[in-house]
Structure formats: structure tokens, C-alpha cells
Write a sequence for this structure.
């Protein structure tokens, strides 16, 4: 969906965060020379057409006690990957699930699922459940735990 | 974090209203005052419990592109390479992971063709091969982490 110059100004003014003041849309409006009504209308439209996924808080997993953030990766037959991916995504502890390309021989995995555990046992239990669900369709798998967040700013557009 | 902080973190992961006084509306739902909500939200952001609070923009819906990419970084060059990669505004997230492919980052670009040019530039500046792994299929879920 095409964004006009005013949408882009709103994105640039909010991509680092929403103002932490009583009337944040009014504050944005004053900053951009718009009315609060127009800012709210445009942000509502952007939510409706999916440009804004949602307005929300993004937690730091580690600070909430989720120290075992694992990218589990699985080598499954391409013919079955869609059906299997949908089933994995339905598991309540899986936060993202994607099919991605392999890089043979270095990287044979085509199905990615993120899990988050407060303890290693939690994460390993989640991985075992995925392994059981995928069953004989898995040729091999591994898990890459994150050891450090190097950057987490979200998307940025430039002027 | 006390119970009020946890309630704020859990509530604000679900979404935030677009209206004149949205903090007041959420504060009322949580049984606190608007001033309390704003003060605690500022602290949660300052302490890094929350990485961000605001609209989450969707690169693809904006006409851009998103990809996951990885690097095999020699241990002794890890910090230097992280600095190079993080300096790109198109790098939205970057994580160290325990694997030969030990640096994994998400690129979000305004135009689809920028993915390739940013990758080429990262390869040029680091001298390393970027493993570009754009999604082929997406099996969506929206997990929220309970505080």
C-alpha cells in the first residue's frame, strides 16, 4: 500500500517509540503540524492495512527471565514443510515459525521455530515436543541459543 | 518487577489504543492512575525490560522487504563485525548465537532491492559471506511472553 509523505513523517516520528505523555497523538500532531484527529486516523488506517502490525510493547526476553531463547532448526522434506510448519506454529510456546532456504552442505535446515524458556529444561522440553510432533519427517535438527542481544531497535526508515 | 509492572508488561504486549488519552484508558483497565502507568513505563524502558514501546511497522506491507541473514564470524573479530553490522540502519535486530553461524540479524529495508545492496555492503565491509535466508513460508503465531 502506498505511503504518502505525511504517513512517512508519522512513521519516522514514531519508529523509535510512542511519546510517553498523556496525549501522545496530540504530541505527535504538534510536532508534525497536523491535527490529533488526522494522526489518529492515519495510524488507524495503517493498522487496518497492516503497515502497523500493532502498537505494543516489545519485551527483552532475558529481562523477563527467558534466558533460553532457542532458534530450533529442522531439516524436513520440502514436500511436507508447509503442513508441518502449520502444526509447529500451533504449539503454544512457539513464537515464530518459518520455512527458509538451505545452504548445502553447511546449512541443511529448512524449518525454523523460535522457543523461549526460563530454564534450559523448559526449552529442551519444548524442543522435545516439536521433535515428537515432527516425528520421522525430521532428518536432522539443532538448536541455536542466543547468547547475546547485539541490537534490537526494530525497523527504521530514513529521511 | 512487582505485580503492577508485570501487569503492565503483559497488557502492553497485547496492543495499545488509538484515542485521545490512551494511557488513561489502559491505566483504568489496570486499576492504576495514568501518571503511575507513564512513570512505570518510562522505568521499564530505561531498565531495558521493554526494548521498545510503540507502533511496530511491517516492512513488507510498506513496500519493503525483510530477511534473516547469518555470518560465520571468527571469534577474535566478533566485536568488530558486530559493530559494522549494527551500524546499518537496515539491521533491525542482531543476535549472537551458539553455532558456527554465530551472528544472526534481521534486515528490514524500504525497497526490496535494498536487501541485496545492504548484504553486498556488509560482505564488502566485513570480508565475510552473508548467508541470506529470506522466508519462503510463514506459519504465523503471536506468542506473548508472560512477565
Amino acid at each position: 500500500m502506498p505511503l504518502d509523505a505525511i504517513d512517512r513523517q508519522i512513521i519516522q516520528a514514531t519508529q523509535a517509540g510512542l511519546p510517553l505523555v498523556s496525549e501522545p497523538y496530540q504530541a505527535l500532531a504538534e510536532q508534525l503540524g497536523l491535527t490529533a484527529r488526522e494522526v489518529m486516523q492515519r495510524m488507524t488506517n495503517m493498522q487496518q492495512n497492516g503497515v502497523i502490525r500493532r502498537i505494543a510493547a516489545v519485551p527483552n526476553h532475558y529481562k523477563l527471565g527467558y534466558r533460553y531463547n532457542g532458534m530450533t532448526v529442522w531439516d524436513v522434506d520440502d514436500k511436507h514443510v508447509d503442513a508441518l510448519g502449520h502444526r509447529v506454529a500451533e504449539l503454544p510456546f512457539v513464537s515464530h515459525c518459518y520455512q527458509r532456504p538451505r545452504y548445502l552442505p553447511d546449512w541443511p535446515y529448512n524449518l525454523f521455530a523460535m522457543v523461549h524458556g526460563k530454564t534450559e529444561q523448559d526449552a529442551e522440553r519444548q524442543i522435545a515436543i516439536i521433535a515428537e510432533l515432527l516425528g520421522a519427517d525430521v532428518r536432522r535438527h539443532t538448536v541455536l541459543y542466543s547468547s547475546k542481544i547485539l541490537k534490537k531497535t526494530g525497523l527504521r526508515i530514513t529521511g | 518487577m512487582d505485580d503492577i509492572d508485570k501487569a503492565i508488561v503483559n497488557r502492553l504486549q497485547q496492543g495499545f489504543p488509538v484515542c485521545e488519552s490512551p494511557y488513561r484508558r489502559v491505566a483504568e483497565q489496570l486499576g492504576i492512575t495514568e501518571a503511575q502507568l507513564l512513570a512505570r513505563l518510562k522505568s521499564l524502558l530505561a531498565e531495558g525490560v521493554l526494548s521498545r514501546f510503540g507502533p511496530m511497522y511491517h516492512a513488507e506491507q510498506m513496500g519493503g522487504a525483510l530477511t534473516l541473514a547469518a555470518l560465520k564470524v571468527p571469534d577474535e573479530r566478533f566485536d568488530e563485525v558486530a559493530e559494522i553490522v549494527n551500524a546499518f540502519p537496515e539491521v533491525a535486530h542482531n543476535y549472537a548465537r551458539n553455532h558456527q553461524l554465530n551472528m544472526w540479524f534481521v534486515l528490514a529495508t524500504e525497497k526490496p532491492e535494498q536487501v541485496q545492496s545492504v548484504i553486498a555492503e556488509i560482505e564488502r565491509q566485513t570480508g565475510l559471506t552473508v548467508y541470506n535466508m529470506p522466508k519462503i513460508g510463514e506459519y504465523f503465531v503471536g506468542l506473548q511472553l508472560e512477565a
Notes: The two ends of chain B are 9 Å apart (CA to CA). Chain B touches chain A through 72 residues (CB under 8 Å). The helical segments of chain B are 3-14, 22-30, 34-46, 78-86, 113-126.
